[in-house]
Amino acid sequence: MPISAELLLAACMFAGAALYTAVGHAGASAYIALMALFGVAPAVMRPTALVLNILVATFTSFRFLRAGMFRWRVLWPFLVGAVPLAFIGGAIQLPGAFYRPIVGVVLLFGAARLLWPGELGANREPHDPPIWGGVLGGAGIGFLSGLTGTGGGIFLSPVLLFMGWSATKTASGVAALFILCNSVAGLFGNLSIVRALPADLPLFAAAVLLGALLGTAFGIRFAVPVIQRALGLVLLVAGAKLIGVY
Length: 246
Fold this sequence. Notes:
The protein has one domain (3-242). The chain starts with a helix and ends with a helix. Residues 119-123 have low confidence and may be disordered. By secondary structure, it is mainly α. The longest helix has 25 residues, at 42-66. Helices cover 74% and strands 0% of the residues.
């Protein structure tokens, strides 16, 4: 990739990290979308997204936990189901012909979540999820997150809000730590994929960490419906490209 393209991709990743971390996510689906748009090979996309996710989710978790936007009782049932399945999903290598449409569907799901009007479950009094419901839901999310190289936050957050299992601000902190644990499990599920990490990974890492610094500061202080919808449109375009709509 020419240096100009690398710098442009890094700048786009910075913007993606800022937008995603504002809502408690680490941005893997955005990084995958951007790498797809820049023509990065599928074999490189998943490990790169996972490593960047781990870096950003670590920082994001620290910021949201420090701000008190977290509830352990909401998180742990999902983690029990998700972590082992993320490890298994991470060990599965899919050919590009299968990987791209699956990730495309993931991105479209993320777009639907971000474009959803209003705050899901905002009219409900939050209550803790049933333990077995959380475990089973976490297992499905964990497997898909490991398989696709995403942290699973784009699935967890709407479930928590739609079911009334968390307040919006708390869901951001829960999603951040969930993404961190899933991303680590997915990467350890197949350590051999780290051989595909690009040489310009340090550039991308610096970009997303700077984006996370900006995004978490914004997310802790403000609501972000306009940003969510703008990012949803980006994911919609990228997801449609991956599944071959155009």
